[in-house]
Each structure stands twice: as C-alpha cells, then as structure tokens.
Amino acid sequence: xNIKKKAQREIGPVGKQNRIxxxxxxxxxxxxxxxxxxxxxxxxxxxxxYERQVDQLVEEVPIKASRGDIYDRNKNVLAKDSSATAVNxxxxxxxxxxxxxxxxxxxLGLKIEEIQKxxxxxxxxxxxxxxxxxxxAAVIVLSHNFAGVTVEDGTLYFEPINIxxxxxxxxxxxxxxxxxxxxxxxxxxxxxxxxxxxxxxxxNALALEIxxxxxxxxxxxEIESYNGIELLDDYRRYYTNGNFASYILGFTGxxxxxxxxVEATYEDVLSGxxxxxxxxxxxDGNQIPSQTKILKEPVQGEDIVLTIDSNIQLMAExxxxxxxxxxxxxxxxxxxxxxxxxxxxxxxxxxxxxxNDPFTLDANFAATHAADLTGKTEQEKLAEMYKNQAVSFIxxxxxxxxxxxxxxxxxxxxxxxxxxxxxxxxIQIGDAVINCATGPHGSVTVSDAIAHSCNPGLVQIxxxxxxxxFYQYVYNFGLGETTGIELDGEEAGIVNRLSTANGGxxxxxxxxxxxxxxxxxxxxxxxxALNCVVNNGYYVKxxxxxxxxxxxxxxxxxxxxxxxxxxxxxxxMRKVVGYDADMTALSEGYSIGGKTGTAEKFIDGxxxxxxxxxxxxxFSPVEDPKYSVYVVLDEPAAxxxxxxxxxxxxxxxxxxxxxxxxxxxxxxxxxxxxxxKGTITVPDLVGQNIDxxxxxxxxxxxxxxxxxxxxxxxVVSQSLPTNSVYDPNSELILALGNDDSTAAGTVIVPxxxxxxxxxxxxILTGLGLKLKITGNGFASSQTPAAxxxxxxxxxxxxxxxx
Length: 802
What we know:
Layout: H1 3-44, H2 49-57, E1 58-63, E2 70-71, E3 77-89, H3 97-108, H4 112-119, E4 127-130, H5 135-142, E5 149-152, E6 155-158, H6 166-177, H7 181-188, E7 196-202, H8 204-213, E8 216-217, E9 223-225, E10 229-239, H9 246-249, E11 251-252, E12 258-259, H10 261-265, H11 267-270, E13 275-280, E14 294-296, E15 304-305, H12 310-327, E16 331-338, E17 344-350, H13 363-368, H14 370-373, H15 378-386, H16 389-392, H17 402-412, E18 420-423, E19 426-429, E20 432-435, E21 442-445, H18 446-451, H19 455-463, H20 467-476, E22 494-495, H21 507-513, E23 519-520, H22 523-534, E24 538-539, H23 547-550, E25 558-559, H24 563-578, H25 581-587, E26 593-603, E27 606-620, E28 627-634, H26 642-662, E29 666-667, E30 670-671, H27 672-676, H28 690-700, E31 704-706, E32 714-718, E33 732-737, E34 746-748, H29 757-766, E35 770-775, E36 778-783, E37 789-791, E38 795-801
Parallel strand pairs: 2-15, 31-33, 35-38
Antiparallel strand pairs: 1-13, 2-3, 3-7, 3-10, 4-6, 5-6, 8-9, 11-12, 13-14, 16-17, 16-28, 18-21, 19-20, 22-23, 24-25, 26-27, 27-28, 29-30, 32-33, 34-37, 36-38
Helix pairs in contact: 1-5, 3-4, 6-7, 12-26, 17-24, 19-21, 25-26
C-alpha cells in the first residue's frame, strides 16, 4: 500500500473536521463583527438620536434679559440699561474674510487674529451629507472611526467642528460610497451658519456703520449680502456719572454679568432671567420663514435701592480728592455712616475709575500705585484698580483703636474716667521701651490719657484687663472677621495673639495692642467698631443695601458695652476735638467727638520709617450721634498726622452731611422729596452718541428733537439743563457735532442758583467745567456769573448755603 495514500486515509476525516471548525470560527467572528457594528449603529449611536434630530431641525437663540436699575436712597438712578448692538458674524455667509477682519479690527479695536479665528469657526451642529446609505456601506464608513462622522437611519452626517482631518475623511468616504470628493470636503469644512459674537454693547451708530461698510453689491448695485455681518439687539450698562461711586456700584463684563461692587454681589437679583426663541431650520441650517416661532420672553431683573445718598456721596468724593491733592497720597478713603442704623450713606476712594470705561487703567491710579503695579500684566493691574479700599485695605489702625481699649476697660470696671495713670514720656515693658509721641504728661486721668493719645497711659490701662477678656471685646467689636457688608472683596483683617514659650501672653505684643499696633483692620471694620462704642454700646452690621431691597429689617444689634460706658467714652472723644485748637476751630460750634490715628506701615516684615497711614473718626452730635465719618489716608506726604491730614477732611465732611440733612426741603418752589420720588429729571447727554442719547430719553419718556441746523453723531449741547425737572409740555433740543467738537472751545456759564451740590456738579461737568465748592446746602452765588463765556476746563466757584 502506498504510504502517502495510507497517511491521507488515516488523517482525512480529522483534517476535514478541523477545516470545517476553522471555517465556522471565521464565519462566527465575521458575524459577531457585523452584529457588533449593527448594534453600535442602531443602538449605541442612536443614544440622543432624538436630541440630534431636534438640534438639526430647530435653532435656539437666547434673548438677553435687561438688568434691573440701581438707585440711591432718594431713587436717583445710578445705573441703568440702555440700547446697544451686538455685532455678530455668520461665518458661513462670509464672502470676503480678509476685508471683514480688517474692518472689524479697525472699527472695534480688536486684534485681527482673534477676529479671523471667530469668522472661520466650523459648524458645531450635525450636517446632513448623503441619504440612502445601506447597512453594509454604513459599517464600512464607520469602520474608519472618524471623529465627527455618524450614520443614522441610512443618512450620513458630519459634525465639522469635530472633524480633525477633513481631507482624509472626504477621500476615504468618497471611495467607500463612490461619491464626489469635493461635496464631501465642503460638508466636512462647512463654516458655522449661526451668529458668532464678535463684540457686544457696541454703539448703535457704529454697528450700523460697520454693517453698511461691508455691503456686497451685484452688477446692478443691489445689495447681495453684508459679508456675514449680523446685528442683534443688545444692552449696555449706563452709569450716570462715570466715576461716581465706582467702588460701590461695580460694573458688568462682556457677558453682561456683574463684576465687582453691588453689580456682582446682587447679580442674582439684577440679572433677571434670559428668554429664548425657537425656530425651524432647513438641512443647511437656514431659518424657514414660514414656520411659527416659539418665544419665551425674558424676565427683566429686579431693581435695587442703595443706602447711599448721592449728594453726600458727591461731598465725600470731593473731600477725598482735595485731601489727596493736598497730601500727595497713594489713596484716600472716606466712609459716612448713619451711626444708629449702620447704613452707609457715602463711601468714596480716590483714585477711582470710570464705570463706563472700566477696562482702561486710570492714569491717576497708575501713577500713585506705580510700585505695586511693576511687573504685573494689564489684567493684574486692572484687578488692583478694582479693589475697594474701604473693605479691602488692611492696615494697623493706630490711635483710633485707643477708644476701643478704653471702652473695654471702663466696661469691665478696672478703671474709671478719673483713674490716674502716669506718663514720664516712655514706659519699659520687658526688653522694650514704648515712647509717648505727645508727652510726657505726668499724672493724668484715663480720660485725658486717651484724649491726648498717650501710649504709656494706654499700656497701663490694658495691663489692668485680663487678656482673654480684652481679646473677646476685640472680637465682639467685629475685628478679625468680615463685617458682611454687601460688597465684594472684603478682607477679615488680622488679630494676632502672640504667646510666650510657656503659653502665656507676650507682654510686649499685648502692650502695643492697646494703642492699635500688632493688629490689622479695614476701614469698614474700624468705623463699625467705633460706632458701637458711641452708639450706646450697640454693634450694628454695616450695610449698603436698603431694607426696601432686602425686604426685611437689618439684623438686631448686639449690645457690647453699656449705655453708661458709651456715654463716658463719647465725652472722652469730645475732649479729643476740644483739646486741639485747630480741630476746635474747624468744628465751628458743632458738637463733634472723634479720635485720631497715625501708624507706621508694616512692610516686608518691619515698620517703615517713611510711610504712614493717618486716620480720623468723628461723630456728631456727641449727645445723640446721627452721622459718623471715618477718613483714612494711605502714605500721605511727610509731616502728616491724623489730626492735621485726616481730621480736617472728616470734620468738614460731617458738617456738610449735617447741613444737608437739615436743609430746607423746598427748592425753587418744588418739594425736594417729590422731585426725588417720581418726577423725571433731565439726564446729562453732552458727549454721548445720538443713538445712545435717544435711547436714554425714550426710556425716561422725554420728548426731544435734533436741531436740523446741526450734523454729526455726538451731542454737543442740550436745551434743558442737566438734572432739571422735566416739564412734559416742553421739548428737549439736541445739537449735534463731531466727537472732537466737545473737547475744546468756549461755553456759557449756566445759572446754578438754588441747585444742590450734585446738580451743579453734573451740569458743569457736562459742559466741561470744574466745580469748586464753598459751604454746604444749595447754590447761593457763583463766580464767574451766569452767561459769562469761558474756556472749557475753567473753574466755577460756587458758594452753597443751607
């Protein structure tokens, strides 16, 4: 027998079975792959299928809600929405991208690279490419695992924004489906067919100018398109006085959400609820005109009312500017508060910034803070400028803290106002010698030691107090934690308790604590703590938001010291003013108490010998305080003390507030309260674009016309004075000119008689003139006289009387 045939005979059945098994395995694997692909196609990839279909057929366009207005306590508008335009581009409709990018860059001041990126963005919705795809062909197409490529119900879709290599995708699928490569590539690289925001809050006239400049016309001169430009209604925030109360109000960002100030802290209240409109679109993403839109109207944000009084705020802003100019400071901050309620009626800091142009670094801030800004980016510099010094500036309070030390010791009964302490010019504490800057005083009472700001005397007072008890008073006065005022960026300050090796109190640290050294506070903390001392011992949380807005009364005050201790401390603080001849003269018979402070700045781990913080806290009347004022100067010029730099500003400011509060409520026959609570006042429109001015007038319901003899895009004059009461039977006439026509030339000085400080300032500012204030109340005389022709930028000195 042939051996070969014999071997084949012996292994034949087994080999045949093996071959059959191998074939079955291969076929099974193929079947599994096909089933897997079909499962992936019909089950896995169908997840969200309904949503994708809706997304393909329905476009959703958001509608921005108008923000609520911000008012002062007298219902004067401080911040309001006005009409603007959002400049958008539909990339799919752009015919000349280079021309468009250049136009937008030059007109809007944007980087051309950023614009090019936006106008070339790819479609982020699915695009229908081809129908009638068999399941087998679908498996082959999907086997490439291209991102952004799907097949559903026999239809091929692309999502261009997710396709990384459109050439590879078009090439492969063209072969798979025997389909046109160019068509596939066009679909894979399709541009976005919905508006892409280039810049919001654009002036209406400028936006229209941009659109018209991009018009593309046919041979007959008919406009075919606007090169992809799409203008949509928008809002922009209008702050009535630019720099006015900038650290209180804050501003809105490019997305129209609040940044800083109450715009940020009350974002949820002011922002409202955006609306949306839905409309049906075709396969190319174009709106189908005949289809009905579904509209969800936006809900306007709620208004808020602040506790500040615009007139007193203006007084405070003028006061800090004058102090800064006199003492060449880094910054000056003033807070005016109702002593009993904790309501802030004014909070001013200089330098400040323009709320209508918040992304430009203020030149004055850049100059005074140059050392702090070195090496910082533009964004970091702006962030420094936005800090509200009233709540974020941390410094050692110095001698103003002595009133708190004295109040705690009096309350605990370890001293009385007549207890005698001794000042020999210095005092030895451990290895340290503590000097008296105003002594030696010899034997003096506790009352006089505090009034004369005697450091050795204060050391002897604090040594009579149990440290644990004293520190508890410090915490009860609100130091070492934020006050909770409704402003962003508030700091907690620092209360140090240095211990010895055996756990005891460091005696030098404790001693210096008595006169405000070794701890850090913010202006809002110290004024609230001192208010507690003079307000019959009640600590009231400071607030910038009226109870009308909050819908509830303020938190119940906490009594920290007794009425008797408070009365005794008020009398001590009356002596502070009474013992100083200059402060007595400045007080002009007003009942004022206060406390000065002068402290070296703690920089890089040591006390500076050349940089100081001076401050003064005062309240009036001493018998029953209505207002309290705190002024702090950061790094004034050499020779400045609290009594010479901060005190004159604070005393002048508290007198103005008292005079204003007691002034006659009738001006020119009209009741002030009625004017403030509903009568329309004429806004300052000089320098504004005509479209912007028109939107403000329409919102206020003021009738107006444009002088036909004038032309231009900017309001250069208006027939009705700023802040005057609008007569519905009259008509406001606006004269137009070019932007540069408002920057130079002459103007006629208006008659300011009978106007408040704020009203006079607004009118003069609108005319390009500067107000110089003498006295308080309402304008009684002025220099130059009304109707005098002067150069823009000139000073107008106005005397105000109650």
